[in-house]
Fold this sequence. Notes:
The structure holds 2 protein chains of 2 kinds.
Chain A: H1 2-11, H2 15-47, E1 53-58, E2 66-67, H3 70-75, E3 80-88, E4 92-93, E5 101-105, H4 107-113, E6 117-118, H5 121-129, E7 133-137, H6 138-144, E8 151-156, E9 161-173, E10 182-186, H7 187-197, E11 204-205, E12 207-212, H8 218-228, E13 236-240, H9 241-249, H10 253-284, H11 286-294, H12 299-336, H13 347-374, H14 377-382
Parallel strand pairs in A: 5-10, 7-9
Antiparallel strand pairs in A: 1-12, 1-13, 2-11, 3-5, 3-12, 4-8, 6-9, 7-10, 8-9
Helix pairs in contact in A: 1-12, 2-9, 2-10, 2-12, 2-13, 10-12, 10-13, 12-13
Chain B: E1 3-16, E2 19-32, E3 36-40, H1 47-54, E4 62-67, E5 70-71, H2 77-87, E6 88-91, H3 103-108, H4 118-131, H5 147-159, E7 165-169, H6 177-192, E8 197-201, H7 205-208, E9 213-218, E10 221-228
Parallel strand pairs in B: 3-8, 3-9, 6-7, 7-8
Antiparallel strand pairs in B: 1-2, 1-4, 4-5, 9-10
Helix pairs in contact in B: 4-5, 5-6
Amino acid sequence: MYFLKLLFRNAFRHKLRTSLTILSITIAILAFGLLRTVISAWYAGAEATSANRLITRNAVSLVFPLPLSYKDKIRQIEGVKEVSYGNWFGGIYIDEKNFFANYAVESKTALELYPEYILPPDQREAFLRDRKAFFAGRKLVERFHWRMGDIITLKGTIFPGNWEFVLRGIYRGRDQNTDESILYFHWDYLNETLKKTAPRRADQVGFYIIGVTDPNRAAEVAVAIDKTFKNSLAETLTETEKAFVLSFISMSDAIIVVIQLVSFVVIIIIIAVAANTMSMTARERIGEYAIFKTLGYRGWRIAGMITGESLLITMIGCFLGIVFTSPAAKVFNKFVGTYFPLFRVESKTIYMDVAASVLVGLCAAIVPTWRAAKIRIADGLRRIG
Amino acid sequence: MAPIVEIAHVTKSYHRGNRAIPVLMDITLNIDEGEFLALMGPSGSGKSTLLNLIAALDRVDSGTITVGGVDITVLSESELAAWRAVNVGFIFQFYNLIPVLTAFENVELPLLLTNLSRGERHQHVELALQVVNLTGRMDHYPAQLSGGEQQRVAIARAIVTDPTVLVADEPTGDLDRVSAEEILELMDRLNTESHKTIIMVTHDPRAAKKAHTIRHLEKGFLNNVLSQAPL
Protein backbone atom coordinates (compact mmCIF):
# COMPACT_ATOMS: atom_id res chain seq x y z
CA MET A 1 0.00 0.00 0.00
CA TYR A 2 2.85 2.32 0.99
CA PHE A 3 4.65 1.69 -2.28
CA LEU A 4 1.48 2.02 -4.34
CA LYS A 5 1.00 5.45 -2.76
CA LEU A 6 4.62 6.28 -3.54
CA LEU A 7 4.16 5.15 -7.15
CA PHE A 8 1.07 7.34 -7.60
CA ARG A 9 2.71 10.39 -6.05
CA ASN A 10 5.88 9.90 -8.07
CA ALA A 11 3.94 9.34 -11.27
CA PHE A 12 2.10 12.63 -10.90
CA ARG A 13 5.02 14.70 -9.63
CA HIS A 14 5.24 16.32 -13.07
CA LYS A 15 1.56 16.55 -13.84
CA LEU A 16 1.89 18.01 -17.31
CA ARG A 17 4.55 15.56 -18.43
CA THR A 18 2.70 12.57 -17.05
CA SER A 19 -0.63 13.77 -18.47
CA LEU A 20 0.87 14.20 -21.93
CA THR A 21 2.47 10.76 -21.74
CA ILE A 22 -0.83 9.22 -20.64
CA LEU A 23 -2.59 11.05 -23.48
CA SER A 24 -0.07 9.67 -25.98
CA ILE A 25 -0.53 6.15 -24.64
CA THR A 26 -4.33 6.55 -24.69
CA ILE A 27 -4.27 7.63 -28.33
CA ALA A 28 -1.82 4.86 -29.23
CA ILE A 29 -3.92 2.19 -27.50
CA LEU A 30 -7.01 3.61 -29.20
CA ALA A 31 -5.30 3.45 -32.59
CA PHE A 32 -3.94 -0.03 -31.84
CA GLY A 33 -7.39 -1.20 -30.71
CA LEU A 34 -9.10 0.17 -33.82
CA LEU A 35 -6.51 -1.33 -36.14
CA ARG A 36 -6.83 -4.71 -34.43
CA THR A 37 -10.62 -4.38 -34.67
CA VAL A 38 -10.30 -3.77 -38.43
CA ILE A 39 -8.25 -6.97 -38.70
CA SER A 40 -10.79 -8.87 -36.57
CA ALA A 41 -13.62 -7.48 -38.70
CA TRP A 42 -11.80 -8.71 -41.78
CA TYR A 43 -11.75 -12.22 -40.39
CA ALA A 44 -15.19 -12.02 -38.77
CA GLY A 45 -16.82 -13.79 -41.72
CA ALA A 46 -14.47 -16.73 -41.32
CA GLU A 47 -15.11 -16.87 -37.59
CA ALA A 48 -18.86 -17.01 -38.18
CA THR A 49 -18.66 -20.06 -40.43
CA SER A 50 -19.82 -23.51 -39.47
CA ALA A 51 -17.75 -26.68 -39.53
CA ASN A 52 -20.89 -28.50 -40.71
CA ARG A 53 -20.99 -26.72 -44.04
CA LEU A 54 -19.04 -27.19 -47.25
CA ILE A 55 -19.07 -24.93 -50.28
CA THR A 56 -18.74 -26.34 -53.77
CA ARG A 57 -17.90 -24.05 -56.65
CA ASN A 58 -16.53 -24.29 -60.14
CA ALA A 59 -12.92 -25.47 -59.98
CA VAL A 60 -11.82 -22.89 -62.53
CA SER A 61 -13.23 -19.84 -60.81
CA LEU A 62 -16.13 -18.68 -58.75
CA VAL A 63 -17.37 -16.63 -61.68
CA PHE A 64 -18.10 -19.77 -63.64
CA PRO A 65 -21.39 -21.46 -62.76
CA LEU A 66 -22.22 -25.11 -62.05
CA PRO A 67 -25.15 -27.04 -63.51
CA LEU A 68 -28.22 -27.30 -61.30
CA SER A 69 -28.22 -30.99 -62.07
CA TYR A 70 -25.26 -31.55 -59.72
CA LYS A 71 -27.64 -31.08 -56.79
CA ASP A 72 -29.07 -34.59 -56.90
CA LYS A 73 -25.69 -36.20 -57.46
CA ILE A 74 -24.22 -34.39 -54.48
CA ARG A 75 -27.15 -35.37 -52.31
CA GLN A 76 -26.40 -39.06 -53.00
CA ILE A 77 -22.81 -38.84 -51.70
CA GLU A 78 -22.30 -40.49 -48.33
CA GLY A 79 -21.99 -38.03 -45.50
CA VAL A 80 -24.10 -35.34 -47.17
CA LYS A 81 -27.09 -34.33 -45.09
CA GLU A 82 -28.53 -31.41 -47.02
CA VAL A 83 -27.78 -29.52 -50.20
CA SER A 84 -28.66 -25.94 -50.99
CA TYR A 85 -27.44 -23.64 -53.70
CA GLY A 86 -27.39 -20.05 -54.71
CA ASN A 87 -25.87 -17.19 -56.64
CA TRP A 88 -24.13 -14.05 -55.68
CA PHE A 89 -26.61 -11.51 -57.06
CA GLY A 90 -24.57 -8.34 -56.66
CA GLY A 91 -27.59 -6.03 -56.88
CA ILE A 92 -27.32 -2.32 -56.14
CA TYR A 93 -29.86 -0.62 -53.96
CA ILE A 94 -30.48 2.93 -55.28
CA ASP A 95 -26.80 3.83 -55.30
CA GLU A 96 -23.50 1.93 -55.35
CA LYS A 97 -22.46 3.42 -52.04
CA ASN A 98 -25.32 1.47 -50.40
CA PHE A 99 -23.37 -1.74 -50.91
CA PHE A 100 -24.50 -4.86 -49.06
CA ALA A 101 -24.27 -8.57 -49.77
CA ASN A 102 -27.29 -10.05 -51.55
CA TYR A 103 -27.80 -13.63 -52.62
CA ALA A 104 -30.33 -15.70 -54.46
CA VAL A 105 -30.66 -18.99 -52.56
CA GLU A 106 -32.77 -22.11 -52.57
CA SER A 107 -34.71 -20.83 -49.63
CA LYS A 108 -36.04 -23.84 -47.78
CA THR A 109 -32.76 -25.75 -47.65
CA ALA A 110 -30.71 -22.61 -47.05
CA LEU A 111 -32.77 -21.75 -43.96
CA GLU A 112 -32.18 -25.26 -42.66
CA LEU A 113 -28.47 -25.04 -43.27
CA TYR A 114 -28.16 -21.66 -41.52
CA PRO A 115 -29.75 -22.14 -38.10
CA GLU A 116 -27.84 -19.07 -36.87
CA TYR A 117 -30.33 -16.92 -38.78
CA ILE A 118 -33.27 -16.59 -36.42
CA LEU A 119 -36.37 -15.89 -38.46
CA PRO A 120 -39.77 -15.84 -36.68
CA PRO A 121 -41.97 -18.75 -37.92
CA ASP A 122 -44.71 -16.50 -39.33
CA GLN A 123 -42.16 -14.47 -41.29
CA ARG A 124 -40.53 -17.66 -42.49
CA GLU A 125 -43.89 -18.91 -43.79
CA ALA A 126 -44.62 -15.54 -45.40
CA PHE A 127 -41.24 -15.55 -47.08
CA LEU A 128 -41.57 -19.10 -48.39
CA ARG A 129 -45.06 -18.37 -49.76
CA ASP A 130 -44.13 -15.27 -51.73
CA ARG A 131 -42.01 -15.82 -54.86
CA LYS A 132 -40.75 -12.23 -54.87
CA ALA A 133 -40.07 -12.16 -51.15
CA PHE A 134 -36.79 -11.48 -49.48
CA PHE A 135 -35.55 -11.60 -45.92
CA ALA A 136 -32.74 -9.52 -44.57
CA GLY A 137 -30.67 -9.03 -41.47
CA ARG A 138 -31.80 -6.72 -38.70
CA LYS A 139 -28.92 -4.28 -39.20
CA LEU A 140 -29.58 -3.97 -42.92
CA VAL A 141 -33.29 -3.33 -42.34
CA GLU A 142 -32.46 -0.69 -39.72
CA ARG A 143 -29.91 0.91 -42.00
CA PHE A 144 -32.44 1.56 -44.76
CA HIS A 145 -35.45 1.95 -42.45
CA TRP A 146 -37.35 -0.80 -44.27
CA ARG A 147 -40.64 -2.10 -42.94
CA MET A 148 -42.41 -5.41 -43.47
CA GLY A 149 -44.14 -5.44 -46.82
CA ASP A 150 -41.92 -2.75 -48.30
CA ILE A 151 -41.09 -3.25 -51.94
CA ILE A 152 -37.51 -2.52 -52.86
CA THR A 153 -35.76 -2.55 -56.20
CA LEU A 154 -32.26 -3.86 -56.78
CA LYS A 155 -30.45 -2.98 -59.95
CA GLY A 156 -28.79 -6.15 -61.22
CA THR A 157 -25.14 -6.01 -62.17
CA ILE A 158 -24.48 -9.68 -62.93
CA PHE A 159 -28.11 -10.25 -63.87
CA PRO A 160 -29.18 -7.07 -65.66
CA GLY A 161 -32.48 -5.38 -65.02
CA ASN A 162 -34.43 -3.92 -62.15
CA TRP A 163 -35.50 -6.59 -59.71
CA GLU A 164 -38.35 -5.98 -57.31
CA PHE A 165 -38.56 -7.71 -53.95
CA VAL A 166 -40.92 -7.61 -50.98
CA LEU A 167 -39.63 -7.67 -47.43
CA ARG A 168 -41.20 -10.68 -45.69
CA GLY A 169 -38.72 -11.47 -42.97
CA ILE A 170 -36.09 -9.95 -40.71
CA TYR A 171 -33.55 -12.30 -39.19
CA ARG A 172 -31.49 -11.88 -36.06
CA GLY A 173 -28.17 -13.53 -35.51
CA ARG A 174 -28.06 -16.39 -33.04
CA ASP A 175 -24.41 -15.70 -32.31
CA GLN A 176 -22.61 -12.46 -31.68
CA ASN A 177 -20.58 -12.83 -34.84
CA THR A 178 -23.51 -13.64 -37.14
CA ASP A 179 -23.67 -11.13 -39.96
CA GLU A 180 -27.00 -9.28 -39.80
CA SER A 181 -26.53 -7.26 -42.95
CA ILE A 182 -27.26 -9.75 -45.75
CA LEU A 183 -30.26 -9.97 -48.06
CA TYR A 184 -31.56 -13.31 -49.33
CA PHE A 185 -34.24 -13.95 -51.91
CA HIS A 186 -35.61 -16.97 -53.79
CA TRP A 187 -33.28 -18.53 -56.34
CA ASP A 188 -36.38 -19.77 -58.17
CA TYR A 189 -37.40 -16.16 -58.80
CA LEU A 190 -34.01 -15.47 -60.36
CA ASN A 191 -34.02 -18.68 -62.39
CA GLU A 192 -37.56 -18.27 -63.73
CA THR A 193 -36.81 -14.72 -64.79
CA LEU A 194 -33.59 -15.84 -66.48
CA LYS A 195 -35.47 -18.53 -68.36
CA LYS A 196 -37.44 -15.72 -69.97
CA THR A 197 -34.73 -13.10 -70.38
CA ALA A 198 -31.48 -15.08 -70.74
CA PRO A 199 -32.30 -18.79 -71.16
CA ARG A 200 -28.65 -19.80 -71.56
CA ARG A 201 -27.94 -18.64 -68.02
CA ALA A 202 -30.87 -20.47 -66.45
CA ASP A 203 -30.55 -23.65 -64.37
CA GLN A 204 -27.04 -22.77 -63.32
CA VAL A 205 -25.87 -21.98 -59.84
CA GLY A 206 -22.92 -20.06 -58.50
CA PHE A 207 -22.24 -22.39 -55.60
CA TYR A 208 -23.60 -25.28 -53.63
CA ILE A 209 -23.89 -25.21 -49.86
CA ILE A 210 -23.58 -28.69 -48.43
CA GLY A 211 -24.52 -29.72 -44.92
CA VAL A 212 -22.53 -32.74 -43.71
CA THR A 213 -23.65 -35.31 -41.18
CA ASP A 214 -20.33 -35.29 -39.33
CA PRO A 215 -17.93 -32.32 -39.39
CA ASN A 216 -15.03 -34.72 -38.76
CA ARG A 217 -15.74 -36.28 -42.15
CA ALA A 218 -15.98 -32.94 -43.99
CA ALA A 219 -12.65 -33.40 -45.79
CA GLU A 220 -13.62 -36.90 -46.90
CA VAL A 221 -16.98 -35.68 -48.22
CA ALA A 222 -15.33 -32.76 -50.05
CA VAL A 223 -12.96 -35.18 -51.82
CA ALA A 224 -15.88 -37.43 -52.73
CA ILE A 225 -17.84 -34.53 -54.26
CA ASP A 226 -14.93 -33.32 -56.36
CA LYS A 227 -14.20 -36.89 -57.43
CA THR A 228 -17.77 -37.28 -58.64
CA PHE A 229 -17.41 -34.39 -61.08
CA LYS A 230 -13.85 -35.05 -62.17
CA ASN A 231 -13.41 -34.88 -65.95
CA SER A 232 -16.84 -33.34 -66.34
CA LEU A 233 -17.44 -30.06 -68.21
CA ALA A 234 -17.62 -28.21 -64.91
CA GLU A 235 -15.21 -29.70 -62.40
CA THR A 236 -15.81 -28.70 -58.81
CA LEU A 237 -13.76 -27.41 -55.95
CA THR A 238 -15.19 -28.22 -52.55
CA GLU A 239 -13.87 -26.77 -49.34
CA THR A 240 -15.08 -25.97 -45.87
CA GLU A 241 -17.09 -22.80 -45.52
CA LYS A 242 -14.25 -21.31 -43.48
CA ALA A 243 -11.66 -22.08 -46.17
CA PHE A 244 -14.02 -20.64 -48.77
CA VAL A 245 -14.33 -17.35 -46.83
CA LEU A 246 -10.60 -17.26 -46.08
CA SER A 247 -9.84 -17.60 -49.78
CA PHE A 248 -11.67 -14.29 -50.27
CA ILE A 249 -9.80 -12.71 -47.39
CA SER A 250 -6.46 -13.90 -48.74
CA MET A 251 -7.06 -11.68 -51.76
CA SER A 252 -6.54 -8.69 -49.48
CA ASP A 253 -3.64 -10.23 -47.57
CA ALA A 254 -1.28 -7.37 -48.35
CA ILE A 255 -3.64 -4.80 -46.81
CA ILE A 256 -4.02 -6.88 -43.65
CA VAL A 257 -0.26 -7.26 -43.35
CA VAL A 258 0.15 -3.49 -43.69
CA ILE A 259 -2.50 -2.87 -41.02
CA GLN A 260 -0.80 -5.36 -38.71
CA LEU A 261 2.55 -3.69 -39.27
CA VAL A 262 1.10 -0.25 -38.60
CA SER A 263 -0.49 -1.50 -35.38
CA PHE A 264 2.90 -2.77 -34.18
CA VAL A 265 4.64 0.43 -35.28
CA VAL A 266 2.17 2.34 -33.07
CA ILE A 267 3.33 0.22 -30.12
CA ILE A 268 7.01 0.79 -30.93
CA ILE A 269 6.43 4.56 -31.10
CA ILE A 270 4.66 4.57 -27.78
CA ILE A 271 7.46 2.52 -26.20
CA ALA A 272 9.81 5.31 -27.29
CA VAL A 273 7.52 8.01 -25.82
CA ALA A 274 7.12 6.19 -22.51
CA ALA A 275 10.82 5.33 -22.37
CA ASN A 276 11.66 8.99 -22.86
CA THR A 277 9.39 9.99 -19.99
CA MET A 278 10.82 7.32 -17.70
CA SER A 279 14.40 8.20 -18.65
CA MET A 280 13.81 11.87 -17.79
CA THR A 281 12.14 10.84 -14.56
CA ALA A 282 14.92 8.48 -13.53
CA ARG A 283 17.63 11.00 -14.43
CA GLU A 284 15.97 13.62 -12.25
CA ARG A 285 15.63 11.19 -9.37
CA ILE A 286 19.08 9.60 -9.38
CA GLY A 287 19.78 11.41 -6.09
CA GLU A 288 16.62 9.99 -4.55
CA TYR A 289 17.47 6.49 -5.68
CA ALA A 290 20.85 6.97 -4.00
CA ILE A 291 19.01 7.94 -0.79
CA PHE A 292 16.92 4.79 -0.99
CA LYS A 293 20.09 2.75 -1.46
CA THR A 294 21.69 4.55 1.47
CA LEU A 295 18.76 3.53 3.65
CA GLY A 296 19.31 -0.10 2.69
CA TYR A 297 17.00 -0.46 -0.33
CA ARG A 298 18.46 -2.89 -2.82
CA GLY A 299 18.62 -2.52 -6.56
CA TRP A 300 15.60 -4.74 -7.21
CA ARG A 301 13.40 -2.57 -4.99
CA ILE A 302 14.45 0.54 -6.89
CA ALA A 303 13.89 -1.34 -10.14
CA GLY A 304 10.43 -2.20 -8.82
CA MET A 305 9.69 1.47 -8.12
CA ILE A 306 10.70 2.58 -11.62
CA THR A 307 9.01 -0.33 -13.35
CA GLY A 308 5.92 0.10 -11.19
CA GLU A 309 5.70 3.78 -12.05
CA SER A 310 6.18 3.02 -15.73
CA LEU A 311 3.47 0.34 -15.61
CA LEU A 312 1.15 2.64 -13.66
CA ILE A 313 1.41 5.38 -16.29
CA THR A 314 0.98 2.97 -19.20
CA MET A 315 -1.91 1.13 -17.56
CA ILE A 316 -3.78 4.40 -16.92
CA GLY A 317 -3.24 5.23 -20.61
CA CYS A 318 -4.32 1.70 -21.52
CA PHE A 319 -7.47 1.92 -19.40
CA LEU A 320 -8.48 5.23 -20.99
CA GLY A 321 -7.60 3.87 -24.43
CA ILE A 322 -9.81 0.83 -23.86
CA VAL A 323 -12.65 2.99 -22.50
CA PHE A 324 -12.57 5.13 -25.64
CA THR A 325 -12.08 2.27 -28.11
CA SER A 326 -15.70 1.09 -28.15
CA PRO A 327 -17.27 4.55 -28.74
CA ALA A 328 -14.59 5.27 -31.35
CA ALA A 329 -15.32 1.93 -33.02
CA LYS A 330 -19.01 2.85 -33.20
CA VAL A 331 -18.18 6.12 -34.91
CA PHE A 332 -15.72 4.31 -37.17
CA ASN A 333 -18.40 1.73 -37.99
CA LYS A 334 -20.72 4.45 -39.28
CA PHE A 335 -18.21 5.17 -42.00
CA VAL A 336 -17.00 1.67 -42.78
CA GLY A 337 -19.99 -0.41 -41.70
CA THR A 338 -20.76 -1.14 -45.34
CA TYR A 339 -17.49 -3.01 -45.72
CA PHE A 340 -17.26 -4.40 -42.19
CA PRO A 341 -20.71 -5.59 -41.09
CA LEU A 342 -19.18 -7.10 -37.95
CA PHE A 343 -17.05 -4.19 -36.77
CA ARG A 344 -16.98 -4.86 -33.07
CA VAL A 345 -14.24 -4.55 -30.43
CA GLU A 346 -13.57 -8.13 -29.39
CA SER A 347 -12.36 -9.17 -25.97
CA LYS A 348 -9.27 -10.54 -27.73
CA THR A 349 -8.49 -6.96 -28.81
CA ILE A 350 -8.82 -5.74 -25.22
CA TYR A 351 -6.41 -8.46 -24.06
CA MET A 352 -3.98 -7.39 -26.77
CA ASP A 353 -4.32 -3.75 -25.61
CA VAL A 354 -3.45 -4.80 -22.07
CA ALA A 355 -0.57 -7.01 -23.24
CA ALA A 356 0.79 -4.21 -25.43
CA SER A 357 0.56 -1.76 -22.52
CA VAL A 358 2.38 -4.11 -20.17
CA LEU A 359 5.04 -4.54 -22.85
CA VAL A 360 5.33 -0.76 -23.24
CA GLY A 361 5.54 -0.28 -19.46
CA LEU A 362 8.25 -2.92 -19.06
CA CYS A 363 10.31 -1.86 -22.08
CA ALA A 364 10.14 1.82 -21.10
CA ALA A 365 11.55 0.99 -17.67
CA ILE A 366 14.50 -1.15 -18.79
CA VAL A 367 17.12 1.55 -19.38
CA PRO A 368 16.14 3.83 -16.44
CA THR A 369 16.04 0.81 -14.13
CA TRP A 370 19.46 -0.35 -15.26
CA ARG A 371 20.91 3.14 -14.78
CA ALA A 372 19.35 3.62 -11.35
CA ALA A 373 20.35 0.18 -10.14
CA LYS A 374 23.94 0.66 -11.29
CA ILE A 375 24.51 4.16 -9.89
CA ARG A 376 27.05 4.30 -7.06
CA ILE A 377 25.55 5.79 -3.91
CA ALA A 378 28.32 8.35 -3.48
CA ASP A 379 27.86 9.52 -7.09
CA GLY A 380 24.10 9.70 -6.72
CA LEU A 381 24.28 11.70 -3.49
CA ARG A 382 26.64 14.17 -5.14
CA ARG A 383 23.80 15.14 -7.52
CA ILE A 384 21.73 16.50 -4.66
CA GLY A 385 21.99 20.04 -3.51
CA MET B 1 35.31 1.75 26.24
CA ALA B 2 35.68 -0.72 23.33
CA PRO B 3 35.93 0.76 19.85
CA ILE B 4 32.78 0.33 17.84
CA VAL B 5 34.46 1.42 14.62
CA GLU B 6 37.93 0.16 13.78
CA ILE B 7 39.60 1.53 10.68
CA ALA B 8 42.93 -0.06 9.79
CA HIS B 9 45.29 1.09 7.02
CA VAL B 10 42.53 2.24 4.72
CA THR B 11 43.41 3.76 1.35
CA LYS B 12 41.05 5.09 -1.27
CA SER B 13 41.60 6.66 -4.68
CA TYR B 14 39.29 8.01 -7.33
CA HIS B 15 39.97 7.53 -10.98
CA ARG B 16 39.76 10.21 -13.59
CA GLY B 17 40.40 8.50 -16.89
CA ASN B 18 43.56 6.45 -16.40
CA ARG B 19 44.75 8.69 -13.58
CA ALA B 20 44.30 7.61 -9.99
CA ILE B 21 43.74 10.47 -7.56
CA PRO B 22 44.55 9.37 -4.01
CA VAL B 23 41.99 10.61 -1.49
CA LEU B 24 42.76 8.66 1.67
CA MET B 25 46.15 7.26 2.55
CA ASP B 26 46.77 4.65 5.22
CA ILE B 27 44.07 5.82 7.57
CA THR B 28 43.92 4.08 10.92
CA LEU B 29 41.34 5.21 13.44
CA ASN B 30 39.33 3.74 16.28
CA ILE B 31 36.03 5.25 17.39
CA ASP B 32 34.67 4.21 20.76
CA GLU B 33 31.07 3.32 21.43
CA GLY B 34 29.10 6.39 22.52
CA GLU B 35 31.69 8.77 21.12
CA PHE B 36 30.80 12.00 19.30
CA LEU B 37 33.57 12.50 16.76
CA ALA B 38 33.96 15.44 14.43
CA LEU B 39 36.02 15.03 11.27
CA MET B 40 37.35 18.34 10.05
CA GLY B 41 39.53 19.47 7.25
CA PRO B 42 39.63 21.60 4.15
CA SER B 43 37.63 20.74 1.02
CA GLY B 44 39.08 17.74 -0.77
CA SER B 45 40.84 16.45 2.32
CA GLY B 46 38.86 13.20 2.15
CA LYS B 47 36.63 13.59 5.21
CA SER B 48 33.36 12.86 3.36
CA THR B 49 35.02 9.94 1.60
CA LEU B 50 36.07 8.52 4.97
CA LEU B 51 32.54 9.00 6.28
CA ASN B 52 31.14 7.22 3.21
CA LEU B 53 33.52 4.30 3.80
CA ILE B 54 32.53 4.02 7.47
CA ALA B 55 28.85 4.08 6.44
CA ALA B 56 29.48 1.47 3.72
CA LEU B 57 28.35 3.82 0.96
CA ASP B 58 31.66 3.28 -0.84
CA ARG B 59 34.36 0.63 -0.91
CA VAL B 60 37.96 0.83 0.25
CA ASP B 61 40.89 0.16 -2.07
CA SER B 62 42.77 -1.53 0.74
CA GLY B 63 42.60 -1.87 4.50
CA THR B 64 39.71 -2.94 6.69
CA ILE B 65 36.81 -1.26 8.42
CA THR B 66 35.06 -3.08 11.22
CA VAL B 67 31.85 -1.70 12.63
CA GLY B 68 30.25 -3.39 15.62
CA GLY B 69 32.51 -6.39 15.06
CA VAL B 70 31.59 -6.80 11.38
CA ASP B 71 34.27 -6.35 8.72
CA ILE B 72 32.24 -4.40 6.19
CA THR B 73 34.95 -4.45 3.53
CA VAL B 74 34.27 -8.10 2.76
CA LEU B 75 30.50 -7.85 2.46
CA SER B 76 28.73 -8.06 -0.92
CA GLU B 77 26.60 -5.17 -2.23
CA SER B 78 23.40 -6.81 -1.11
CA GLU B 79 24.85 -7.71 2.32
CA LEU B 80 26.01 -4.12 2.68
CA ALA B 81 22.52 -2.82 1.88
CA ALA B 82 21.04 -5.04 4.59
CA TRP B 83 23.82 -4.06 6.98
CA ARG B 84 23.31 -0.32 6.39
CA ALA B 85 19.57 -0.64 6.98
CA VAL B 86 20.21 -1.96 10.49
CA ASN B 87 23.46 -0.36 11.60
CA VAL B 88 23.77 3.14 10.17
CA GLY B 89 21.66 6.27 10.47
CA PHE B 90 22.41 9.02 7.95
CA ILE B 91 22.10 12.77 8.32
CA PHE B 92 22.98 14.78 5.22
CA GLN B 93 23.66 18.44 4.55
CA PHE B 94 20.67 18.78 2.22
CA TYR B 95 18.38 16.62 4.40
CA ASN B 96 17.73 14.23 1.50
CA LEU B 97 14.07 13.69 2.27
CA ILE B 98 11.78 12.22 -0.36
CA PRO B 99 9.66 15.20 -1.47
CA VAL B 100 6.48 13.23 -2.24
CA LEU B 101 6.36 11.66 1.20
CA THR B 102 5.17 13.36 4.38
CA ALA B 103 7.46 13.74 7.39
CA PHE B 104 5.84 10.65 8.90
CA GLU B 105 6.27 8.60 5.72
CA ASN B 106 9.89 9.72 5.33
CA VAL B 107 10.69 8.52 8.82
CA GLU B 108 8.83 5.27 8.18
CA LEU B 109 10.90 4.57 5.05
CA PRO B 110 13.77 2.60 6.72
CA LEU B 111 11.29 0.58 8.78
CA LEU B 112 9.65 -0.82 5.67
CA LEU B 113 12.70 -3.04 5.29
CA THR B 114 12.10 -4.59 8.70
CA ASN B 115 9.60 -7.22 9.79
CA LEU B 116 7.70 -4.79 12.01
CA SER B 117 3.93 -4.70 11.74
CA ARG B 118 2.18 -1.52 10.58
CA GLY B 119 1.22 -0.68 14.15
CA GLU B 120 4.76 -1.23 15.44
CA ARG B 121 6.16 0.91 12.66
CA HIS B 122 3.79 3.71 13.55
CA GLN B 123 4.83 3.51 17.20
CA HIS B 124 8.51 3.74 16.26
CA VAL B 125 7.92 6.67 13.89
CA GLU B 126 5.89 8.61 16.44
CA LEU B 127 8.58 8.04 19.06
CA ALA B 128 11.32 9.24 16.69
CA LEU B 129 9.31 12.32 15.79
CA GLN B 130 8.75 12.97 19.50
CA VAL B 131 12.51 12.89 20.08
CA VAL B 132 13.01 15.59 17.44
CA ASN B 133 9.92 17.44 18.68
CA LEU B 134 8.03 17.30 15.38
CA THR B 135 4.89 15.31 16.17
CA GLY B 136 2.78 18.31 15.26
CA ARG B 137 4.10 18.38 11.71
CA MET B 138 4.15 14.73 10.82
CA ASP B 139 1.64 15.15 7.98
CA HIS B 140 3.58 17.93 6.32
CA TYR B 141 5.56 17.41 3.16
CA PRO B 142 9.23 18.49 3.14
CA ALA B 143 8.42 21.56 1.03
CA GLN B 144 6.06 22.70 3.80
CA LEU B 145 8.79 22.55 6.44
CA SER B 146 11.66 24.92 7.23
CA GLY B 147 15.28 23.81 6.75
CA GLY B 148 15.70 23.11 10.45
CA GLU B 149 12.49 21.10 10.57
CA GLN B 150 13.52 19.10 7.51
CA GLN B 151 16.82 18.29 9.15
CA ARG B 152 14.99 17.20 12.28
CA VAL B 153 12.86 14.86 10.15
CA ALA B 154 16.10 13.52 8.64
CA ILE B 155 17.44 12.92 12.16
CA ALA B 156 14.22 11.14 13.12
CA ARG B 157 14.63 8.96 10.01
CA ALA B 158 18.25 8.28 11.01
CA ILE B 159 17.41 7.16 14.55
CA VAL B 160 14.13 5.33 13.90
CA THR B 161 15.88 1.97 13.38
CA ASP B 162 18.09 2.52 16.48
CA PRO B 163 21.31 2.12 14.47
CA THR B 164 24.79 1.31 15.79
CA VAL B 165 26.26 4.57 14.51
CA LEU B 166 24.94 7.89 13.26
CA VAL B 167 26.90 9.50 10.45
CA ALA B 168 26.34 13.16 9.67
CA ASP B 169 27.81 14.94 6.66
CA GLU B 170 27.76 18.71 7.24
CA PRO B 171 24.41 18.49 9.08
CA THR B 172 24.30 22.23 9.68
CA GLY B 173 25.83 23.29 6.37
CA ASP B 174 22.55 24.40 4.86
CA LEU B 175 20.98 25.92 7.97
CA ASP B 176 20.82 29.35 9.54
CA ARG B 177 22.56 29.87 12.86
CA VAL B 178 19.52 29.30 15.09
CA SER B 179 18.42 26.16 13.29
CA ALA B 180 21.99 24.90 13.22
CA GLU B 181 22.23 25.36 16.97
CA GLU B 182 18.96 23.43 17.46
CA ILE B 183 20.22 20.55 15.33
CA LEU B 184 23.53 20.43 17.18
CA GLU B 185 21.68 20.45 20.51
CA LEU B 186 19.56 17.58 19.30
CA MET B 187 22.60 15.58 18.20
CA ASP B 188 24.28 16.30 21.50
CA ARG B 189 21.19 15.02 23.30
CA LEU B 190 21.17 11.85 21.21
CA ASN B 191 24.78 11.30 22.18
CA THR B 192 24.54 12.09 25.86
CA GLU B 193 21.06 10.78 26.65
CA SER B 194 20.73 7.90 24.19
CA HIS B 195 24.46 7.12 24.01
CA LYS B 196 24.47 7.17 20.24
CA THR B 197 27.84 6.99 18.53
CA ILE B 198 28.00 9.96 16.17
CA ILE B 199 30.54 10.62 13.46
CA MET B 200 30.14 14.08 11.97
CA VAL B 201 31.93 15.74 9.08
CA THR B 202 31.92 19.50 9.35
CA HIS B 203 33.65 22.67 8.28
CA ASP B 204 32.04 24.61 11.05
CA PRO B 205 34.17 24.99 14.21
CA ARG B 206 31.02 25.80 16.21
CA ALA B 207 29.50 22.49 15.18
CA ALA B 208 32.75 20.67 15.92
CA LYS B 209 32.73 22.11 19.44
CA LYS B 210 29.73 19.89 20.24
CA ALA B 211 31.84 16.79 19.55
CA HIS B 212 33.95 15.10 22.20
CA THR B 213 36.76 14.49 19.81
CA ILE B 214 37.89 16.33 16.71
CA ARG B 215 40.12 14.68 14.11
CA HIS B 216 41.63 16.61 11.24
CA LEU B 217 42.17 15.28 7.78
CA GLU B 218 44.58 16.94 5.43
CA LYS B 219 45.40 15.81 1.90
CA GLY B 220 44.25 12.30 2.67
CA PHE B 221 46.16 11.91 5.88
CA LEU B 222 44.67 11.81 9.33
CA ASN B 223 46.46 14.20 11.65
CA ASN B 224 47.80 12.57 14.70
CA VAL B 225 46.84 15.64 16.66
CA LEU B 226 43.71 14.82 18.52
CA SER B 227 41.72 17.83 19.65
CA GLN B 228 39.46 17.41 22.58
CA ALA B 229 36.43 19.62 22.24
CA PRO B 230 35.48 21.46 25.39
CA LEU B 231 32.53 19.72 27.00
